[in-house]
Amino acid sequence: MNCTGKIKVFTPQTITGYGVAKIVDSSNPDFKKGDLIWGLTGWEEYSLIKSTQGLFKIQNADLPLSYYTGILGMPGHTAYIGFYEICSPEKGEYVFVSAASGAVGQLVGQFAKLLGCYVVGSAGSKDKVDLLKNKFGFDDALNYKEERNLDAALKRYFPNGIDIYLENVGGRMLDAVLLNMRVNGRIAVCGMISQYNLEHPDEGTRNLLCLVTKRIRMEGFLVFDYYNLYPKFLEMVVVPLVKQGKITYVEDVAKGLENAPNALVGLFSGCNVGKQVVVVASE
Amino acid sequence: MNCTGKIKVFTPQTITGYGVAKIVDSSNPDFKKGDLIWGLTGWEEYSLIKSTQGLFKIQNADLPLSYYTGILGMPGHTAYIGFYEICSPEKGEYVFVSAASGAVGQLVGQFAKLLGCYVVGSAGSKDKVDLLKNKFGFDDALNYKEERNLDAALKRYFPNGIDIYLENVGGRMLDAVLLNMRVNGRIAVCGMISQYNLEHPDEGTRNLLCLVTKRIRMEGFLVFDYYNLYPKFLEMVVVPLVKQGKITYVEDVAKGLENAPNALVGLFSGCNVGKQVVVVASE
Predict the structure, then answer these.
(1) What is the domain class of B74-223 according to CATH?
(2) Distance in Å, alpha carbon of B227 to nearest chain A alpha carbon
(3) In this predicted complex, what is the ipTM?
(4) Where is the Oxidoreductase N-terminal domain (chains A, B) (predicted)?
(5) Over pLDDT 90: what percentage of chain B?
(6) What pLDDT is stored for residue A1 in this prediction?
(7) Which of A65, A92, A152, B100 is deepest in the core (most CB within 10 A)?
């Protein structure tokens, strides 16, 4: 019971999340015993999967299987769709990525660099900022927790303004970005992690009038709508880039299902460095 | 000096606005003495126009000349671009228009009805609501000043949600609309009149996460970027519709340049009914 007197009742349910699994039994001829798959599974050692929608067979088992929860799976595909499909980027454009060391952000930044864009990322610790600059090849990176005035910070990093923003956080970062967007800018809204767990919504976004004055397109998307592009992304884009070493990928691995709750909670305060993975069982 | 002790200094300048004028002298061979034009002119009896960018010769002088400040000019073109180009509307979609009795809004609503959409407008008085329903043919209309809970109001008018929103006001209306948008909705941001004159920005938009969950595209635009489509809009779309009586247009006419300041100020409290026009000189 919280202090306003409301009672919240939780019905225990298995938490779902993107996982990699091996099929131990199947009545579906397309998925045979021994096949490796990725898709929505349960936080449990054995899952009964009733729908094959959004379930993909793993063909390239020579790459680390955990990559299919990240760079080769939903987050990687999200980065690809958000950057290429939603933002229609061009060489030389100025790209800003928030939550840039996360599973989506680190890839967006690397895709943008490969295209010849100028890329700056924001993250919440010195370690992450170093990672962005030294491992992922971002042109620059900022620690948003050390910036009292995000608008002024963005003006330092982008004196010419921002063409493309990959929005992962929302809140005051979005407000500062709007002030620094260039004419005809694009904002792909992947998520707004700062807004997910607020008891009351925060102060709100105040600079939306910039959408008009700068003719900005701001578009939310969910990667489920782009499953038809997944095979192309996987085979033509990301697997070759990973195998050629042109893209780097960092995971933060927790071991054991019993450590999954702490790993989840840690995401909201930025404890993870790179994609948070939980190893439930090894082959 | 305002109460915080700041001193504001204004340098007197001629206010500019969209006007209709007759050329009394010209050194440009494309614009001859006697030609009628519309475009950005001064709030004055005679203007010296140095740039012909955004200046259009009036060919259809058989329609009221004041219409070129509205339905046949910038606001009409704005309605056309915002609805057709930005929102890609389809027959049967649910369309909501704010500031719906204004120069842009009344046209968007009528374009949407002609296409076979379901259209509701919001305005700030009973007279305007009546105008929307009885003169412009909106399916329904609401007086936002009488609605304490805009979210609940929109749920009454759009039990199935909103596909397309023509945003002219911003603020709490936008927040309520976001909660009521349908998946794959489009928001064309024409303006945000509630935000123009705030000493401090208001409480901000809090429901932007809906952009992601509902895959909404929100796009600001300025009609200047679409001048290439103006001749098509004028000759193929709006002039035929006006001449055939398929589109109605309401103006609120103030007479005399000395009444222009009050007419302008009145816009921000919604005193005008329809497009506010000021007659400076008659032929």
Answers:
(1) alpha beta
(2) 15
(3) 0.85
(4) 13-57
(5) 72
(6) 36
(7) B100
